[in-house]
């Protein structure tokens, strides 16, 4: 066992760190100003420009297989990269990637949806959640009924990330009610690729964070049979795979953000004088800094372990739930302490802390809430699927 980054990993970390410092952090004030004044965080075309700069540095399709032009760096590298890039709140994402489940498409679907998504020509979204079915994904109500060569979709989806911008949605609907009931929702649902011009509508949902998901309405939307992604009646597992993929990644984001925030608190506490001394000299402040540092390290190792396990080709779902649960809660505790250490300034929109505070609150909700992660972790242990401390 060797608990250090390899030379290659260090080099990637350094390159991304430089990219973040040189290209992203200088945009932070503009992002804050734009958001304060109700404009999009980045001006049109800026994200693409940044993605092309990252591409020049070799970062394009970090997890995309080489046959699709990606770098296919693996999960550990992805964790390292995400922890670095999350040190800024500038809404940047690397180009050259597509949703994991799109790779299940047949050749025609890959040409029509996967490759244009990787190339940035098309935007996708994924829709499972409904007004009456969030954590309880098996309780969805949207239906798809066969009519000739088409399936006719009716129902509503909610909280869909990117739903306002997407050209197409991968949407989960019930295709066999009896089978759906008989299998407690595990079967009888299918994933359809539905282009926006097939007729679904989206509506922006205002949220605490600065980007809004969308509600989607399907009113007799006709989707051709060839747009079924994966197998008919077997879409539930695709849904779980889509949700599961992002889980430990939330933890990675929390680690990067918390590191930057903690550094801000340390710097501020050295400068801010009260009652004749820097607040850094007060035990009340020191303990908040110390607790935050310990918790960041704990989350980092949970994230790296989840990523490493996946690279080893092993099932990382239990670890991913742990990394998500602990990482997102750690992120919330750290941002709260950092805001407190900054006093009134922490509460203003002059600094990014309140923005991060609002963003961090989401980490505990999407991709499976705290309660759902605890349920998964406890169930695995109680049912004996995983033993306490079995990782090493
Ligand atoms: C900004 C944002 C983006 C999102 N993006 C997407 C997306 O792209 N695609 C998509 O399909 N979905 C998306 N979601 C939906 C997200 O996955 C759900 O909001 C989440 O799974 C929780 O579901 P819910 O909101 O219906 O809460 P509910 O399931 O109604 O839960 C309400 C509360 O009860 C708790 N709870 C529920 N069941 C149990 C239980 N058995 N035991 C104990 N406690 C329980 C929950 O933890 C929560 O605290 C997004 C959500 C948000 C807010």
From TrEMBL:
<dbReference type="GO" id="GO:0050660">
    <property type="term" value="F:flavin adenine dinucleotide binding"/>
</dbReference>
<dbReference type="InterPro" id="IPR009100">
    <property type="entry name" value="AcylCoA_DH/oxidase_NM_dom_sf"/>
</dbReference>
<keyword id="KW-0285">Flavoprotein</keyword>
<dbReference type="InterPro" id="IPR006089">
    <property type="entry name" value="Acyl-CoA_DH_CS"/>
</dbReference>
<dbReference type="Pfam" id="PF02771">
    <property type="entry name" value="Acyl-CoA_dh_N"/>
</dbReference>
<dbReference type="GO" id="GO:0003995">
    <property type="term" value="F:acyl-CoA dehydrogenase activity"/>
</dbReference>
<dbReference type="InterPro" id="IPR006091">
    <property type="entry name" value="Acyl-CoA_Oxase/DH_mid-dom"/>
</dbReference>
<feature type="domain" description="Acyl-CoA oxidase/dehydrogenase middle">
    <location>
        <begin position="125"/>
        <end position="203"/>
    </location>
</feature>
<dbReference type="InterPro" id="IPR046373">
    <property type="entry name" value="Acyl-CoA_Oxase/DH_mid-dom_sf"/>
</dbReference>
<dbReference type="GO" id="GO:0033539">
    <property type="term" value="P:fatty acid beta-oxidation using acyl-CoA dehydrogenase"/>
</dbReference>
<dbReference type="InterPro" id="IPR037069">
    <property type="entry name" value="AcylCoA_DH/ox_N_sf"/>
</dbReference>
<keyword id="KW-0274">FAD</keyword>
<feature type="domain" description="Acyl-CoA dehydrogenase/oxidase N-terminal">
    <location>
        <begin position="6"/>
        <end position="121"/>
    </location>
</feature>
<dbReference type="InterPro" id="IPR013786">
    <property type="entry name" value="AcylCoA_DH/ox_N"/>
</dbReference>
<dbReference type="InterPro" id="IPR050741">
    <property type="entry name" value="Acyl-CoA_dehydrogenase"/>
</dbReference>
<feature type="domain" description="Acyl-CoA dehydrogenase/oxidase C-terminal">
    <location>
        <begin position="234"/>
        <end position="381"/>
    </location>
</feature>
<comment type="similarity">
    <text>Belongs to the acyl-CoA dehydrogenase family.</text>
</comment>
<dbReference type="Pfam" id="PF02770">
    <property type="entry name" value="Acyl-CoA_dh_M"/>
</dbReference>
<dbReference type="GO" id="GO:0005737">
    <property type="term" value="C:cytoplasm"/>
</dbReference>
<keyword id="KW-0560">Oxidoreductase</keyword>
<dbReference type="InterPro" id="IPR036250">
    <property type="entry name" value="AcylCo_DH-like_C"/>
</dbReference>
<protein>
    <recommendedName>
        <fullName>Medium-chain specific acyl-CoA dehydrogenase, mitochondrial</fullName>
    </recommendedName>
</protein>
<dbReference type="Pfam" id="PF00441">
    <property type="entry name" value="Acyl-CoA_dh_1"/>
</dbReference>
<dbReference type="InterPro" id="IPR009075">
    <property type="entry name" value="AcylCo_DH/oxidase_C"/>
</dbReference>
